[in-house]
Design a protein that fits this description.
alpha+beta; globular
């Protein structure tokens, strides 16, 4: 499987141990409130283990985002399908304020949606979004995802946004 993707501004890499400090710092803040944070070091460690372990168990997973020419992790995006999830998901998180509001999450999400449909062979993909996460809702809509109120969800309060197959793909 592909463990690296590139976009015009970003490299997306399979998570590695060297990404732990950025993940820990992110999960300790309120920025992580929609993905289980703020979290103490123990919970952050276990969550990062899930992110890395997903690759081993599924052969794919979310990618760490870096701006080209930089070694600093600025976010996470990509396919996610834990054993108890009803459907395959595309998720995203931006770690720092510096990376926010610049289209980085959209750029990474588009690349990982294309990867899920093209490389992984998915026939559908959703994003589960907390109803209070206005930025993620807006991003899902900008990406062309459509709300699917009848879809099952991992948490009863989640909103489900279904991603269309990217244009030009069979």
């Amino acid at each position: 499987m592909t463990d690296m993707l590139e976009t015009p501004r970003l490299t997306l890499h399979r998570p590695e141990a060297r990404d732990w400090p950025a993940w820990e710092a992110f999960l300790a803040t309120d920025r992580a409130r929609f993905v289980g944070g703020p979290a103490d070091v123990g919970r952050a460690w276990r969550a990062f283990g899930h992110v890395i372990g997903h690759w081993t168990l599924r052969g794919y997973g979310s990618f760490i985002l870096r701006e080209k020419g930089s070694d600093t992790p600025i976010g996470l995006a990509g396919p996610w399908y834990p054993a108890d999830w009803p459907e395959r998901e595309i998720g995203w998180s931006i770690f720092t304020v510096h990376a926010e509001g610049r289209g980085i999450a959209a750029e990474a999400a588009r690349a990982t949606i294309a990867h899920a449909y093209d490389t992984l062979g998915w026939d559908t993909a959703v994003s589960y979004i907390d109803p209070a996460n206005a930025r993620s809702i807006a991003l899902a809509e900008r990406l062309g995802a459509v709300r699917d109120s009848s879809a099952p969800r991992p948490h009863s309060e989640d909103l489900v946004y279904r991603h269309k197959r990217p244009a030009g793909m069979p």
